[in-house]
Amino acid sequence: MMPEVHDSPNTWVAAHIRRFEETGGRPRPGVHDLLLTTRGRRTGELRRTALVYERDGDRYVLAASNRGAEHHPAWYLNLLADPYVTVQVGTETFTARARTATVQERPRLWRLMVSARSEYAAYQQRITREIPVVVLERVED
């Protein structure tokens, strides 16, 4: 039996997850979306959210912006505790290892994310925490 997956309690994110599922993962115009499933750091339950990504070669890049909140999103805190995640892009689902971009690679990857979604720069300007950039690397079976 498959373990139960809990979707984001945020109604806006939950609506994105439903749209993703209803369309078979078809992207929104001009936006690359994926579903990310992490293991809850306190509960151990599987938690799913919808996120914007960009590609860097065969890697997927995310910004843990939390829409400009002063605290990190729960999905980011969860992957710090357990970096093995499930990713769905379109109709393809795979296991990946998530990590925070290194100090050396972050500037280039941050520019990649800002070029895709300019609101990330606006979020960063209004908060004191540095928005983490996350790299997802596929784990071969």
Give an overview in words.
The protein has an eight-stranded mixed β-sheet. It has helices spanning 11-22, 74-81, 106-116, 119-126, and strands at 5-7, 33-39, 46-52, 54-56, 59-63, 84-89, 92-100, 133-138. The mean pLDDT is 94. The longest helix is centred in the first third of the chain and has 12 residues, at 11-22. A hairpin with a 2-residue loop joins strand 6 (84-89) and strand 7. With 141 residues, the chain is an alpha+beta fold. The protein has one domain (5-138): Electron Transport, Fmn-binding Protein, Chain A (Pnp Oxidase, Chain A).
Compact summary:
By secondary structure, this protein is of the alpha+beta class. Helices cover 28% and strands 33% of the residues. An 8-stranded mixed β-sheet has the order 1-3-2-6-7-8-5-4.
Keyword list:
8 strands, eight-stranded mixed beta sheet, alpha+beta, Pnp Oxidase, Chain A, globular, about 140 residues, single chain, 4 helices
Question: What secondary-structure arrangement, pairings included, does this model have?
Answer:
Blueprint: E1 5-7, H1 11-22, E2 33-39, E3 46-52, E4 54-56, E5 59-63, H2 74-81, E6 84-89, E7 92-100, H3 106-116, H4 119-126, E8 133-138
Parallel strand pairs: 1-3
Antiparallel strand pairs: 2-3, 2-6, 4-5, 5-8, 6-7, 7-8
Q: Give the termini distance in whole angstroms.
A: 20 Å
- Under CATH, the topology can be stated as Pnp Oxidase, Chain A
Instruction: Sketch the major β-sheet.
Output: 8 strands, mixed
Q: What is the overall number of helices? A: 4
- Which strand order spans the largest sheet, edge to edge or round the barrel? 1-3-2-6-7-8-5-4
CATH architecture: Roll
- How many β-strand stretches? 8
Instruction: Give the overall shape, derived from the CA principal axes.
Output: globular
Structural class: alpha+beta
**Strand percentage, roughly?**
25-35%
What is the helix/strand order?
EHEEEEHEEHHE
The CATH class: Mainly Beta
- Report the uncertain regions: none
Query: Roughly what is the average pLDDT, rounded to an integer?
Result: 94
Integer count of domains: 1
Radius of gyration: 14 Å
CATH homologous group name: Electron Transport, Fmn-binding Protein, Chain A
